[in-house]
Amino acid sequence: MRTALLFTAGLTAAAVALPALAEYPDKPVTIIVPFAAGGPTDKVARDLAEALRKPLGGTIIIENVGGVGGTLGANKVAKASPDGYTLLLHHIGLASASALYRNLPYKTLEDFEYLGMVNEVPMTLIGRPNLPAANYAELAKWMEANKGQINLANAGVGSASHLCGLLFQSAVKIDMTTVPYKGTAPAMNDLLGSQVDIMCDQTTNTSGQIESGKVKAYAVMSSKRLSSGPLAKLPTADESGLKGFNLAVWHGLYAPKGTPKAVVDKVNTALRAALKDADFHKRQEALGAVIVNDARLAPAEHKKFVEAEINKLTPVIKAAGQYAD
């Protein structure tokens, strides 16, 4: 009798849970952006939210939880209720945090459900306006002649420009004085004012300055040239002589570990539809971003990709000895 009663209770609970799951979302879904409003990741999130509303069938709210290189916002999602109502839109920093932070409050590969990749934003190598190098070949000679005197700006520890700078130094085998700033804007201001020499940052932050001729542009750090926009004529690092250098700031969507598979599947289906939205494509193209359209749209492949990125970035970060508490 006891067994029968437990079985009946289980059926009743399931009967109650299934309709509730089928109605997801029946209240607003919050996407946490682990950076300040107005930045490139915030822009991607807001564009994506607009494209997601119809296929997901609900209201989407963007909440900015910046600080500590994106780890505060990521941790908030990792610790949130796994019901599909709190999601995370993060970039390559999710992969680098494992090596950068000694006391990371979450486990990147264990504390999230991976929902699918969104886009990739190529990095660009730029220099101060009065730098005496017109192309990458000349820049390489200048760097060789000025070893120990080169100032490399970035937007702060854990930022995309920080990672690109570390990888760039490793690739050219030249140590530079890393100058971290509290964001891209102050770093760019000092580059424009020739207070620092070079910076490696994403097209969302550099295309306007490149197009206006206010900085020297040397290469786009992607496997192939951009197909359109103001940077279409900018050669790749590989074309310029920096063989094999390829780095993009990718964005992905995540939920707390334990989110029901039915919810994961519904968000993934909605994401795939959103990435085909014409307006979303136009907005992303204007930022120099490339919409993901490959196996990484699947949660399992998304997770494999992030794991591979962790394995790629960790040795470089450890070799540089640039940790954060």
UniProtKB/TrEMBL annotation:
Family: Belongs to the UPF0065 (bug) family.
This protein's UniProt keywords: Receptor, Signal
Signal peptide: 1-22
InterPro entries: BUG, Bug_dom1
UniProt protein name: Tripartite-type tricarboxylate transporter receptor subunit TctC
Organism: Pelomonas aquatica
A Pfam family reported for this protein in Swiss-Prot or TrEMBL: TctC
